[in-house]
Amino acid sequence: MSAERPSFPRVDRRTAIKWMLTAASSTLLFDRTSWSADAGATASGYGSDPDLVKDYKPGDLWPLTFTAQQRRTTIALCDVILPADEHSPSASAVGVPDFLDEWVSAPYPGQVRDRAVILQGLEWLDAEAGRRFQKNFSSSTEPQKIALCDDIRLVASARPEHVVAAQFFTRFRDLTVGAFYTTREGMKDLGYMGNVPLATFDGPPLKALQQLGLA
What are the boundaries of each domain within the chain? Predict the structure, then answer.
């Protein structure tokens, strides 16, 4: 899949970081109410705690939601947002669609809200692709997919009839980017060097200390 997209370019590192920070600050990626006592996340609400030493697979904790067609649409949209390039694989290649299916299948209030948004948005994509191109979104050509996404990529600039779809796209994009850049491949793409054991630690570099006025 080509990563050259004049009208819908691949997310660059600076944009991805900005999206991730925005999502984190607004609790988009992690809805605190989903885990709060007020939201019902108690022993009587969602069953027993998971076994933290078990390797869970998709569908082990709760039934998954996506139909075969919804999954195809999800894969296609993920790869429009983050296609493969010379630096890293596509979003679908590192399991982002699996994450999204798990996310919208979870019983917590925040995820339940997202489920309605995501499922309705996927349905809209296929219906709109059918209206424009006489085929569903996943079967559309790359230029067709990009043209459709261009119309809903920003809520602020979307036409009135596309505002709801643009809100879906924003949420879907935030979840896709957040999932991708927390994988090993995504961290490598960003140049993130954390979580690596070091034999020695020499402290912060002098340049960083100088910027903070500490050296």
Answer: 13-41+52-211
